[in-house]
Amino acid sequence: MEDRPATDAPGSRVLQARAVSAGYGDAHVIDELSLSVATGRITALVGPNACGKSTLLKTFARLLPLAAGSVLLNGDDIHTLRTREVARRLGILPQTPVAPESITVGDLVWRGRHPHRRFGQRPTEADDLVIAEALTATGTEDLVDRPVDELSGGQRQRVWIALALAQDTPVLLLDEPTTYLDIAHQIEVMDLLADLNESTGKTILLVSHDLNQAALYAHTIVAMRDGRIVRQGPPEEVLDVRTVAEVFGLDCVVVPHPRTDRPQIFPLGRRHLTEEN
Hints:
By secondary structure, the protein is of the alpha/beta class.
């Protein structure tokens, strides 16, 4: 079996944004932002809509041009690396991926192996094993012959995650990976990502709108607002009443999870507030 991509030692910084400015057209969504992502850890970007979470993720993935600053991948300027080299080191699941019309699940997931083979090369036993592992891990092995455009939203999301796993990179960037999934499948996906992180040392950077899931699964929370980082660190240090109010403009109660002691947020709408509160 071919060698899997190596990972750096835990505690090192696999991805670094240095004074990065980026956006769409002339509008900067993030401006002079710096962030280091720890190797072998799960980092969650949280914040309100349009705060720059997805823009930052796309910047790390080299999907957006930089107006200023630099992005380093294992110490190398990502914009100087060949596309195939980046694809061997870093996999990304965008927020709304689009599959070619009528493509089957098996063919789509197979595309995750492209960075690891030469043009025209036939699948190897190693390719088949990685693909089978990705399908099994996401519970999509029974869908392999189904056209992707005939699947439910939840099934499609799991197939896209299988493609990202088949790419077999040491770093995964995931933009809202539990979108379209019911609560049971959301937890299955988050458990899967945590298992992969623990068993293989994969570095996972994900965007999440679910603060409680982020708190339960991430080692590091990066809370953003208006294109800047408000706070970052372990969930128990970041997710408190003050930060939720500053980032989301929301009153809440924060209590420890009864099993994990990780913080869990209970929002307070205006109907739940009294003069005494």
